[in-house]
Amino acid sequence: MYNNMYYVEMKITKRLSSVFNINEIQILENARIRHNNYFVNATCRQTKNRKYISKIITKGDVIGFYLETEHPVADTQRIGNALRMYSIIAATNGLGGYVSNQRLMKAA
Predict the structure, then answer these.
(1) How far, in Å, CA of 97 to CA of 78, rounded?
(2) Residue 72 contacts by C-beta under 8 Å, 6 or more apart in sequence?
(3) How far apart are the first and last CA of the chain?
(4) Cα–Cα distance, 104 to 92 (Å, whole number)
(5) pLDDT, tens digit, 9 for 90 and up, residues 14-38
(6) What Cα–Cα distance (Å) separates residue 50 from each residue in 27, 54, 73, 85, 95?
(7) CB 91 within 8 A of CB 18
(8) How far apart (Å, rounded) are the C-alpha atoms in residues 102 and 14?
(9) Which one, of 51, 75, 56, lies nearest residue 8 by Cα?
(10) Quick count: other Cβ atoms within 10 Å of Cβ 47?
(11) Residue 4 and residue 73 in contact, taking contact as beta carbons nearer than 8 Å
């Protein structure tokens, strides 16, 4: 969808290294769809850089995101901040116990 592509991993500290179950994967996928819908409908006032999560993968207690952005991210060391809205959406859709202590949620 967009030309600037990144891969970002988020470690879920409150989770054991067990595999995500089907319900959790479905919640992650629903949050991805809502995140993408938010940025499709966002006005220029709401965002300066539209984002799109093309795919989410899970490995133990790590979630990997394939993130695409409309404009390049200024600081690639802080690419995780681009997932702030995803964390908010995921927290409100059933994953609050996993993302509530993440730095992204505190920043939001």
Answers:
(1) 23
(2) 4
(3) 26
(4) 14
(5) 666 677 889 889 999 999 999 999 9
(6) 22, 13, 11, 11, 23
(7) no
(8) 10
(9) 56
(10) 13
(11) yes
* 53: β partners: 67
DSSP 71: S
| Alpha-helical segments (H) within 1-108 | 22-41, 84-90, 96-99, 103-107
SS3 27: helix
Name residue 9's amino acid.
Answer: E
Give 45-59 pLDDT, tens digit per residue.
888 899 999 999 988
CA-closest candidate to residue 36, choices 57, 50, 19, 18:
50
Cβ(88)–Cβ(79) below 8 Å: no
Sheet order of strands, 51-59 included: 4-11, 62-69, 51-59
Structure tokens at 106: 């505190």
Calpha distance 47→58 (Å, rounded): 28
